[in-house]
Amino acid sequence: MNLQLQYLINLQKFDLRIFQIQDQLRKAPEFLKSAETPLQDILIRLQALKNTGEALVKQRRSGERELATQEDQLQKIRNRLSELKTNKEYQAHLFEIELTRKKKDSIEENVLEMMERVEQNEQAIKELEEQAKEAQNAFDVEKARLETHFANLANELADLDRQQKTLADMVEKPLLARYTRLKTMRKGYAVAQLRNGACGGCQLQLPPQLVAEVKRGDELMDCSYCHRILYMAHHLEAESTE
Ligand SMILES: [Zn+2]
Fold it and tell me: pTM to 2 decimals?
């Protein structure tokens, strides 16, 4: 068979694999980013909980200050007991104490509720921090796996590039130019297998005369429609028995 055709078939195999690897390597940052997404989601939720926690602590503190003021107030009122002269004054005094005490109780209740919410929030933070730790571990493992995978691909690519260049040097210059042009136009597929009388690239039926010429393999024939360089299965078989 035509040795040049054999070179082109192999060259296309190299080129397609090179293209595939380059594409994967380009997508490497996306893969890493998507592996990190679960961790990032948890960290965002964690930050939100921490912000809530800070706001709750502030509210609790302000409640505690308010409570202290109210307790002082109550004490001052109680201390006035000795100044009271009449029964009416005494009744008014009791009423004032009652009002102030109620207000103090309500503030106290509020503070207790704040303390409870702070505690619940801290518990939620603790649980989410556990999840974050697990997500971080999972990401570390996946990241290491991806980095190994991409390093292997980069090595394979360097190897393929060398082999591709060696092979390309063996192809006659005008033919290589024709192949390269077609490769660009046809997304990597410059060479197509002819099957049942149809071009494997564009799937169109070819004239019997052309099919017969491809079968002989003396000359490199183009598909009449997409102009890909045609080969047949027996050209491949010849390769494997070499
Ligand atoms: Zn075609």
Answer: 0.73
Q: How far is the CA of 191 from the centre of ligand 1 (A)?
A: 9
Q: Is residue 229 helix, strand or coil?
A: strand
Residues 6+ positions from 123 with CB-CB distance below 8 Å: none
How far is ligand 1, taken at its centre, from the CA of residue 238, in Å? 23
Per-residue model confidence as pLDDT tens digits over 195-241 = 999 999 999 999 999 999 999 888 899 999 999 999 998 877 554 44
What's the rounded Cα separation, in Å, for the pair 59 and 48? 17
DSSP 8-state class, residue 193? E
Q: How far apart (Å, rounded) are the C-alpha atoms in residues 242 and 21?
A: 28
Distance, in Å, from the CA atom of 84 to the CA atom of 133, rounded to the nearest integer, reads: 65
Q: In 10 A of CB 40, how many CB atoms?
A: 13
pLDDT single digits (tens) 12-44: 999 999 999 999 999 999 999 999 999 999 999
Q: For residue 189, name the pLDDT band (cuts at 50, 70, 90).
A: very high
Report the C-alpha gap between 219 and 221 in whole angstroms: 6
Strands 191-195 and 198-199: antiparallel
Structural domains of the chain ordered from first start? 13-170 (1.10.287.1490), 172-241 (no CATH)
Question: In angstroms, what is the span from residue 225 Cα to ligand 1's centroid?
Answer: 5
Amino acid identity of residue 107, one-letter, is: I
